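Sequence design from tokenized structure. All designs in this work follow the same two-part layout: the structure record, then the generated sequence. An example of the structure record is given first.
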């Protein structure tokens, strides 16, 4: 659903001041994250900021598409219906509850989690009213059958549109091939058959099972002291239903061997995705691979892949590499779009550059530049309340160290060539790479 925007706007100059202050604070060290568990079992992660009278809340549930089971799209449909009707109120009435307090509410979901976010002014009466609306939305959704059908139709239209998008099709096929029978393999947006099969009882059961306090992580960032944050957390914990934490998502295995999948598709360029499952969030490999990937293809036009593919050969305007650590092993991917008649040349470059960084790591100048770029830009990741809240929620959800932000720069600066090579060789295996090639058929490449 669209964001419900702040009606009581704060002058832009104050936001600029906040950005500068928070960026300066990040240079001196990350924000202090405090953690506790409420008496009835809600995990809370809290950071106090006092630059502006705002509070950002992020409530994350282990309720992403990995929990869909036999009904792909169930998690997304459930998340999309939050705010569309709750406790006898329709979507317009819910929107007005937030707007009357100048608050902003949103919900979203992915493979690992579903999240509900709230931004409010921090004075007690306003915040309490916004919290009351949030509680009604999360704990007492109506899941009206007519509204569900309307949301189902929207998702079906989105699915139909994505089927015409070559990048989206290639991405879905990569996840399916790379993850096989693992829960990450299915499309979070569902399929036509699965969306048609989902009934109201399925949505109600999913919500009752996964939207419980024992399965939630709460991040609180803003102009509240510890006592106020504890009161807020107790209010939310008391309102959320009780349940059980689900079993952990299993770790995916790597493909047994390399596989190339060619998908005919009428498009002006050929889309290529290469990769396989790599590491999970919190793994010690993260910082060496983050730095190494920055050199390989994560730094835009100055990366090795961009220089070789774009500047040296004119093969592509867009090429990148990335690691996406998740609760279980997330993927490593190389992706690009090229002229169809130069597909094989592009594949050769991708494989060659990957093999080079895996065998030899970056050069001295490349490593110095990567360390400087990553540490220099890091404060910008913490220049707003909402950005900090996003980091804090992720840290809590993935069980990462509370000093992750405080030690980020130190961890990056400790990376050397040997650690990059070692972790690339442990986590990336060219002999098990899944390669998706989607585009016009070209017999010249055979």
């Amino acid at each position: 659903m669209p964001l419900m925007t702040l009606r009581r706007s704060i002058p832009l100059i104050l936001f600029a001041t906040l950005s500068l202050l928070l960026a300066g604070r990040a240079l001196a060290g990350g924000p202090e994250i405090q953690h506790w568990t409420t008496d009835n079992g809600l995990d809370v992660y809290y950071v106090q900021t006092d630059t502006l009278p705002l509070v950002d809340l992020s409530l994350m549930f282990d309720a992403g598409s990995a929990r869909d089971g036999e009904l792909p799209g169930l998690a997304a449909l459930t998340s999309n219906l939050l705010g569309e009707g709750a406790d006898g109120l329709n979507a317009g009435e819910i929107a007005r509850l937030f707007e009357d307090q100048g608050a902003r509410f949103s919900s979203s979901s992915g493979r690992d989690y579903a999240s509900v976010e709230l931004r409010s002014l921090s004075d007690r009466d306003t915040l309490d009213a916004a919290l009351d609306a949030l509680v009604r939305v999360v704990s007492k959704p109506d899941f009206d059958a007519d509204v569900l059908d309307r949301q189902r139709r929207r998702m079906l239209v989105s699915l139909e549109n994505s089927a015409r998008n070559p990048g989206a099709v290639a991405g879905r096929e990569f996840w399916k091939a790379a993850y096989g029978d693992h829960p990450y393999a299915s499309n979070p947006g569902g399929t036509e058959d699965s969306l048609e099969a989902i009934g109201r009882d399925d949505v109600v059961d999913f919500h009752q099972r996964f939207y419980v306090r024992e399965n939630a992580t709460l991040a609180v960032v803003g102009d509240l002291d510890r006592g106020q944050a504890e009161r807020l957390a107790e209010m939310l914990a008391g309102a959320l239903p009780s349940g059980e934490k689900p079993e952990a998502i299993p770790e995916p295995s790597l493909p047994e061997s390399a596989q190339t999948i060619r998908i005919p598709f009428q498009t002006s360029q050929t889309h290529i995705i290469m990769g396989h499952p790599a590491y999970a969030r919190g793994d010690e490999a993260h910082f060496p691979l983050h730095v190494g990937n920055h050199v390989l293809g994560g730094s835009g036009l100055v990366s090795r892949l961009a220089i070789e593919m774009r500047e040296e050969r004119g093969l592509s305007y867009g090429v990148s590499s990335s690691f996406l650590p998740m609760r279980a092993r997330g993927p490593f991917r190389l992706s690009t779009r090229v002229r169809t008649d130069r597909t094989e040349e592009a594949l050769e470059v991708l494989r060659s550059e990957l093999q080079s960084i895996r065998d030899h790591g970056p050069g001295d100048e490349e490593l110095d530049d990567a360390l400087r770029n990553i540490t220099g830009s890091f404060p910008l990741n913490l220049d707003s309340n909402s950005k900090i809240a996003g980091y804090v929620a992720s840290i809590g959800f993935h069980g990462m160290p509370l000093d992750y932000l405080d030690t980020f720069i130190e961890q990056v600066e400790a990376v050397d060539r040997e650690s990059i090579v070692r972790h690339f060789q442990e986590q990336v295996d060219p002999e098990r790479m899944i390669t998706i090639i989607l585009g016009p058929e070209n017999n010249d490449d055979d």
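The chain has 16 helices and 13 strands. We note this feature because it recurs in several other targets discussed in the main text.
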